[in-house]
Amino acid sequence: MDNELLFFICGGILAVSAVLVTFAGLKLQNFPGRALPVVIIWFAVLAGASSTFAVLHAEDEQEHKAHELEKEGEKIEETEGQPHENEAGTEEEEPVEPGGGAQEGNAGGASTTLQLAADPTALAFDKTELTAKPGKVTIDFDNPSAIPHNVVIEKDGKELAGFAPIAEGEESVSADLEAGTYTFICSVPGHAQAGMEGTLTVK
Question: What's this model's pTM, rounded to 2 decimal places?
Answer without folding.
Answer: 0.48
